[in-house]
Amino acid sequence: MTKAQGTIIILILLALFISSCANMFAGGKAQTVKWAYMIEDIDDEMFTFRMQELGDEGWELAYCRRAVKGTGLSSQGIYECIFKRPKGIK
């Protein structure tokens, strides 16, 4: 390899590096996602249906726990869920 060929390879690599850096820092600062949150209690019988419905609306399940609502004979199994999605989605 000649000195000229080595210089050309170095310039090409430098151009690729600068191009990739420019893509990473486009706009001067990184964009952060702002989240909307929703808390919902879902009955056992409606869990699968409601999860699909909320997913279709853009909500992502962030946390879920099994819980019991009420006491004694009137107690009912539910899921307490926290959902999130990027702000601005309706």
Describe this structure in words.
The chain is of the alpha+beta class and 90 residues long. It has two domains: 1-29; 32-90, Alpha-Beta Plaits, CATH 3.30.70. Helices cover 36% and strands 33% of the residues. The chain contains two helices and three strands. The chain has helices at residues 3-24, 47-56, and strands at residues 35-43, 60-69, 76-86. The protein has a three-stranded antiparallel sheet with strand order 1-3-2, covered by helices on one side. It is rod-shaped, with a radius of gyration of 26 Å. The mean pLDDT is 84.
What number of structural domains do the residues give? 2
Biggest pleated sheet: 3 strands, antiparallel
Strand content: 25-35%
Terminal-residue CA separation: 60 Å
Annotation field: number of helices? 2
Q: Gyration radius, to the nearest Å?
A: 26 Å
Residue windows where pLDDT falls under 50 for at least 5 positions: none
Mean pLDDT: 84
CATH topology of the largest domain: Alpha-Beta Plaits
The chain-level structural class is alpha+beta
Q: Could you give the topology of this structure?
A:
Elements: H1 3-24, E1 35-43, H2 47-56, E2 60-69, E3 76-86
Antiparallel strand pairs: 1-3, 2-3
Task: Please supply descriptive tags for the structure shown above.
single chain, 3-stranded antiparallel beta sheet, 36% helix, 90 residues, rod-shaped, alpha+beta, Alpha-Beta Plaits
Summarize the entry for a quick read.
It is built from 2 helices and 3 strands; from the N terminus they run αβαββ. By secondary structure, the protein is α+β, with helices and mostly antiparallel strands. The protein is rod-shaped and about 90 Å long.
